[in-house]
Design the sequence.
């Protein structure tokens, strides 16, 4: 949540910062701001409620000049989204400007102390407290420059932060620090770029340094990059080369990132399988498992932690691991798990699933699991993200950057990786016979083509969306492997169209939700020909008997459901465990088209942010 950008170099800072903020807008978009320092040491500061475009309109022709600047796009935590609470925040004397992503948990106590020392505050934010604290430390000792003062001040701080600070007295220096919120430093020729992720940096340089927790960095045109921990230990920067391509973060002719990402799924699933699915050898190669083989063969239990859509992928994986590996599995919301006192230790493998790799609750859950002796296997999409770096081993989903706030291609890539993991572990533990494994491998290999076929039916999806766009409520049902697909379908619809939707296991309907069904209630149901087919047919009858409208995802060629349903969407046949990768796609497209028809902001739905770095 919140995106931060900084620039120090020879180019004008303002346009670079604005471009960077637009790339990071998916992280928060309720207000934005910039601060630029020119060579004469004067600071220009603009903040505006709304999107980066609102900030640009507010700045108008009064474009700040200068080669050092910081910018921020906010997702409000402390204080409502308005001009005053927007970042950057300034110290009382206006000498320092600071941007922040995270939450300062002890800000109240710090604020009281600072007020007692004569500081006064104009905003409701925790961030303003931080910039005052640094200024206070600088004031208390003339020996401390901004770098040292920031380092010392951060020892007083409890919470999460990625910050960038500038001082009008030092127009060639940018100070950065992070704890639990991401920060990447791009190293160019005589210039530095800073951002919450690499997307604003990629078109300028591929060389980046990921700042680690409790590290403070000074970038200076004369002295280069220096890093110390907040406890004052020297750190040697490690430069990593980015592999991301610029085209992958642009819309490429699609109206929205979400639509582009839905259509990228044949490729993202194929990318996820590449090099892992070795059909010719009858095996699966996954370094994150093969390098820790005995741990997987001896594991007593799997615990899967995640949030939101990634949690839904974890629920599908529970069925896969039970079927292929015959091992006990628990699937937990990371936000609940981290605050419980779970029985956890050696012999347990905790699988953390996260598209961004930065979700605060998932990160906290893996830290707790590591402390208790469990092995952490991370499944992330963003390369170099905090969860991927803190996991003991793992696998990337390789779906490419996902910019639309609603997760689509990351979800199907997570399902694909989880299928590979479950199959490989089943193979290693001998719980999958070679024929079963081979059938599934062939099945997985065919998934990208089946997704491609489904995506060609765009006009069918539009027609169904048109018919139900005015519904105030919707119900999503599924059983077995498709129960989590129902949950995911409901989440997609509600988050981008703001239509109230609930996902349920189809059989649970009669324990309560059936009371909601009348002729105005659309019921989206997965009724593919799997182990639960006959039972789902009965559930459809129950809905029809009460006047509900049925939109069913069925196996191609099915006529039985078609007789009862108001609309059917066909997916090509696949093994039960692989059907969710296909059956979820109609719900993505229906939600997308309904949201577009309702004129919603599909890529940046209200109140949401892509990367939830606060708990
Ligand atoms: C929904 C969505 C969210 C995320 C959740 C976890 O479309 O995107 O529910 O799935 O915030 O995020 P990650 O996977 O980045 O940990």
Sequence:
């Amino acid at each position: 949540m919140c995106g931060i950008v900084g620039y120090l170099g020879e180019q004008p800072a303002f346009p670079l910062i604005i471009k960077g903020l637009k790339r990071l807008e998916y992280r928060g978009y309720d207000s934005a701001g910039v601060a630029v320092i020119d060579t004469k040491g004067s600071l220009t500061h603009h903040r505006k409620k709304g999107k980066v475009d609102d900030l640009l309109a507010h700045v108008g022709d009064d474009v700040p000049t200068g080669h050092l600047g910081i910018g921020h796009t906010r997702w409000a935590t402390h204080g409502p989204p308005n001009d005053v609470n927007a970042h950057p925040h300034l110290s009382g004397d206006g000498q320092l400007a600071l941007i922040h992503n995270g939450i300062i948990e002890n800000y109240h106590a710090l604020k009281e102390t600072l007020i007692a020392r004569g500081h006064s505050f104009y905003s409701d934010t925790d961030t303003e407290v931080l910039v005052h604290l640094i200024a206070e430390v600088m004031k208390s000792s003339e020996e401390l420059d901004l770098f040292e003062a920031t380092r010392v001040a951060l020892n007083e701080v409890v919470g999460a932060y990625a910050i960038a600070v500038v001082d009008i007295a030092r127009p060639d220096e940018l100070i950065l620090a992070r704890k639990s919120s991401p920060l990447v430093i791009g190293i160019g020729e005589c210039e530095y770029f800073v951002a919450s992720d690499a997307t604003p940096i990629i078109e300028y340089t591929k060389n980046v340094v990921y700042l680690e927790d409790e590290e403070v960095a000074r970038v200076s045109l004369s002295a280069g990059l220096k890093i110390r921990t907040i406890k004052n230990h020297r750190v040697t920067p490690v430069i990593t080369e980015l592999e991301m391509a610029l085209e992958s973060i642009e819309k490429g002719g699609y109206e929205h990132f979400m639509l582009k990402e839905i259509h990228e799924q044949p490729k993202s699933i194929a990318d996820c399988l590449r090099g892992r699915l070795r059909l010719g050898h009858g095996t699966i190669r996954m370094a994150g498992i093969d390098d820790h083989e005995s741990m997987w063969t001896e594991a007593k239990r799997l615990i899967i932690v995640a949030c939101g859509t990634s949690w839904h992928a974890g629920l599908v994986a529970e069925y896969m691991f039970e079927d292929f590996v015959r091992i006990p599995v628990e699937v937990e919301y990371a936000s609940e798990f981290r605050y419980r006192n779970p029985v956890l230790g050696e012999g347990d493998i905790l699988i953390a699933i996260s598209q961004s790799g930065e979700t605060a609750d998932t990160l906290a859950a893996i830290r707790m699991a590591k402390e208790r002796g469990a092995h952490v296997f991370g499944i992330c999409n963003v390369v170099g993200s905090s969860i991927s770096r803190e996991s003991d081993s793992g696998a990337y989903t390789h779906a490419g950057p996902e910019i639309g706030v609603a997760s689509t291609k990351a979800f199907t890539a997570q399902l694909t990786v989880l299928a590979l993991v479950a199959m490989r572990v089943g193979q290693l533990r001998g719980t999958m016979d070679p024929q079963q494994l081979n059938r599934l491998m062939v099945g997985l290999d065919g998934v990208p083509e089946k997704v491609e076929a489904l995506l060609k039916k765009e006009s069918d999806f539009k027609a169904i969306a048109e018919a139900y766009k005015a519904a105030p409520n919707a119900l999503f049902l599924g059983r077995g492997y498709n129960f989590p697909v129902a949950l995911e379908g409901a989440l997609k619809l509600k988050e981008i169209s703001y239509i109230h939707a609930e996902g349920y296991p189809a059989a649970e309907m009669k324990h309560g939700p059936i009371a909601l069904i009348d002729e105005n209630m659309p019921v989206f149901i997965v009724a593919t020909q799997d182990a639960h087919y006959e039972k789902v047919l009965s559930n459809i009858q129950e809905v029809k008997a009460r006047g509900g409208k049925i939109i069913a995802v069925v196996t191609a060629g099915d006529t039985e459901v078609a007789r009862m349903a108001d609309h059917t969407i066909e997916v090509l046949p696949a093994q039960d465990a692989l059907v969710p990768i296909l059956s979820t796609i109609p719900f993505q497209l229906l939600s997308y088209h309904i949201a577009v028809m309702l004129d919603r902001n599909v890529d940046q739905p209200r109140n949401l942010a892509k990367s939830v770095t606060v708990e």
Notes: The chain has 20 helices and 27 strands.
